[in-house]
Write a structure and sequence with these properties.
globular, alpha+beta, single chain, Nucleotidyltransferase, domain 5
Length: about 120
């Protein structure tokens, strides 16, 4: 394992100690890769993913522009799906990433879409 990956894993474990999604307020988890960004809304009590969205999924209409622009669009898409599923309030899990760049863009897009966190 590289130094950056193990550092992110340490941060992630610290975050997950304090943060858990419930049925009333599920967890919005973000994963960032070099090519895409992924978001899931997870109920940790049952261990099930309720809603998911990705910049590489078929239902995502590719937003022109930078990866940050795509992150905003994914945030809006996951918010739209969550509201359709009856979810309004979530807990944001940045998954060990810094709240900066694409992660911040996704969070802002989800807030614009109507999610509260």
């Amino acid at each position: 394992m590289g130094a950056k990956l193990s550092r992110r894993d340490r941060i992630k474990k610290g975050i997950r100690k304090r943060l858990s999604g419930s049925t009333e307020r599920p967890r919005l988890s973000v994963y960032r890769s070099n090519k895409g960004i992924y978001a899931q809304i997870i109920d940790d009590l049952t261990g099930k993913t309720i809603v998911s969205a990705s910049s590489l999924s078929k239902d995502f209409v590719a937003a022109e522009g930078t990866k940050s622009d795509q992150s905003v669009a994914v945030g809006k898409l996951v918010a739209q799906k969550a509201i359709a599923a009856g979810i309004k309030d979530v807990v944001f899990d940045r998954n060990g990433y810094l709240y900066h760049g694409r992660v911040k863009s996704l969070a802002e897009g989800a807030r614009e879409g109507g999610l509260n966190f």
